[in-house]
Amino acid sequence: MPESFAKRALIVFLLYFVASTVLITSVNADDTQISQAIDSVESAVIYGDGVQDDAPGIQTLLDSGVSSVALPAPKKNYSISKTLVLRSGQTLRLEPTTVIKLLPGSSCTMVVNDPKEVNAKDIRLIGGIWDMDHMNQSANPFHPEYASDTKYPYKKYGPPGYRTDVFQKHYHLDTFLGCAIQFYGVTRLEIKDLTVRNPVTYGVQVGGLKY
């Protein structure tokens, strides 16, 4: 990771960290928790080269407990192989022209709210061009007759007992439905200034929202 890029990402992140005093006002953290969060920031590795996986580094920042993660413009684009998970009181912000792309064969939603969290609230996803790269993911899970169109294994949607006639947040968020972005059961969700490219099925899917 280029030193200048690492410093820039860390500075931007720390600006949000300090400005929002998130660990003091949002989660009532003690000194140990604050220290652990700072350690998480320093250990996060984000490349932005369009090749290496940025998901672990970005998720490390989100898991630190900070309320705002602002990713600087990358050298090329961000690449992720796993779903990014946002929790209550968190904002993930990218520049409007920054591309974040799903790596080939990942076959997962790009970003969701945490399905294990009860009564999720105040989540914001701002900016970015979210490219699911559908030609390099598993086939549309709703149409297995076209599964031969992709070289990646077909993933049937839904575990045993999955039902489509009732709302099942856990299954929706944990199941590959071909959607790029999914949020369920969130109070005060904000999604703005972003673009979705090449989803397998839908660009953005939301449900059970409240204000």
What are the defining features of this structure?
four-stranded parallel beta sheet
Layout of helices and strands:
Layout: H1 3-20, H2 22-25, H3 31-43, H4 55-63, E1 68-71, E2 78-80, E3 84-86, E4 91-94, E5 99-102, E6 111-113, E7 121-126, E8 129-131, H5 169-174, E9 181-184, E10 187-192, E11 195-197, E12 204-207
Parallel strand pairs: 1-4, 2-5, 3-6, 4-7, 5-8, 6-9, 7-10, 8-11, 9-12
Helix pairs in contact: 3-4
Protein described:
This protein has 211 residues and is of the alpha/beta class. The protein folds into 2 domains: 1-66, no CATH class; 81-211, no CATH class. The chain is 24% helix and 22% strand.
Put the structure in a nutshell.
The protein is α/β, with parallel strands linked by helices. It has five helices and twelve strands. The chain has a four-stranded parallel beta sheet with strand order 1-4-7-10. Strands 2-5-8-11 form a four-stranded parallel beta sheet, with no helix packed on it. A four-stranded parallel beta sheet has the order 3-6-9-12.
The mean pLDDT is 80
The portion of residues forming beta strands comes to 15-25%
**Poorly predicted segments:** 6-31
CA radius of gyration is 17 Å
